[in-house]
Amino acid sequence: MNILGGTTMRPLLTCLAMILAGTILIILSYVFVDRQVVWWLVAHHSRSVLFFKMAANDITLLLNVLIVLFYLYYGINVLLRRLTYWDRKTVLLCHAVVIGQFLKEALKVVFGRYWPATFASNPSLIDNHVYGFNWFKMGTAYASFPSGHTTFIFSFATVLWCVFPKLRWLACLLCVLVISGQIVMYYHFVSDIIAGVILGTLVGVCVVRNYLENQKI
Known about the structure:
This protein is mostly helical. It has one domain. It is built from eight helices and no strands. It has helices at 9-32, 34-43, 50-80, 85-111, 125-128, 148-163, 168-184, 190-216. It is globular.
């Protein structure tokens, strides 16, 4: 099933099917998986593995720096009117990340979910035994859902997969590393990760599809 091609209705139905399937997985994870995974990881001291901490944080941090640098490079080339075909394709990666992060922040406010662990003074499952959502609760203390890092890497990787087919191995590797790190370090619940996967993938697909449609004009 090709979400990028076909009539307007077919990709729309595919996206709706993804959202529906994802919603079911999120509900199941919320009820049966999230707390169990966190407590199991805490019991096994998973945060002591430095590799997963690096995977959880450093990959997206590095990509953030590269994206800022590329936007500067891209802006200069726009002014000089010397954009290349590769510039126009690469900037899609940056656009997808920016759009995904904007939507992620809006959704965090809507859901207002407690975090698995306390990183500042936020209430959490591990330290305060609180679990669930605080609808339309603003602030980083209630911002676990959806996972921003997962949204970031999947919006980036989806465009990378579609636009640069020879780098699909890299797209898969980045996704596996980031979501593994987020879960093992219990920065997020599994359902937060699922939501980030869905959001990031849909954003990436929409960015690529918009690019392809403009190429036909």
